[in-house]
């Protein structure tokens, strides 16, 4: 039909997953995301964010996660809590010493290993788990 115009529609979604524009768009969007507590750090890689909270700031974990979740909502994104994981890294010298650990964050699983950019990191920052996984993968190919 000629001479007719469609109605205006608001686009309420982000970039299509797998598109070439997605990572660049996310990097630009995430440029204004910063931790709210001095001493805490955010590391951003592609569409992943790693929040590092030192022992002195453990009581700020839930506050930082709420901040990230609010930032995501403001930027039409969502924090997928089911894909989020918490890992406590202990110094090797403190392994046997008991510490008062905060309970795990709600809806976020506490783990002893974490996959970061394809590398398995464990809670003592050794490469043993990664090497074991690589060797097992190689073994399955033989």
Structure, explained:
- The protein is α+β, with helices and mostly antiparallel strands and about 140 residues long.
- It is extended, with a radius of gyration of 20 Å.
- The strands form 3 sheets. A two-stranded antiparallel ribbon has the order 1-2.
- A hairpin with a 2-residue loop joins strand 5 and strand 6 (about 120).
- It is built from 3 helices and 6 strands, in the order H-E-E-H-E-E-E-E-H.
- The chain folds into 2 domains: about 20-80; about 85-140, no CATH class.
Concise overview:
This protein is α+β, with helices and mostly antiparallel strands.
CA-atom Rg in angstroms: 20 Å
Number of contiguous helices: 3
> Largest sheet, described in full?
2 strands, antiparallel
Strand order of the largest sheet: 1-2
Distance between the ends: 63 Å
Q: How is the topology of this model organized?
A:
Elements: H1 22-29, E1 41-45, E2 48-52, H2 61-74, E3 85-87, E4 109-111, E5 113-116, E6 119-122, H3 128-141
């Amino acid at each position: 039909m000629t001479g007719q115009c469609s109605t205006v529609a608001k686009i309420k979604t982000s970039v299509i997953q797998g598109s070439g524009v997605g990572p660049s768009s996310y990097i630009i969007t995430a440029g204004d995301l910063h931790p709210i507590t001095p001493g805490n750090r955010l590391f951003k890689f592609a569409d992943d964010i790693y929040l590092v909270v030192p022992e002195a700031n453990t009581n700020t974990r839930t506050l930082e996660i709420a901040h990230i979740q609010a930032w995501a909502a403001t930027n039409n994104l969502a924090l997928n809590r089911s894909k989020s994981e918490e890992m406590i890294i202990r110094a090797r010298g403190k392994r046997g010493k008991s510490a008062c650990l905060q309970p795990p964050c709600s809806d976020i699983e506490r783990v002893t290993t974490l996959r970061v950019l394809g590398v398995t990191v464990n809670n003592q920052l050794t490469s043993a788990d990664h090497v074991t996984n690589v060797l097992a993968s190689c073994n399955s190919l033989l």
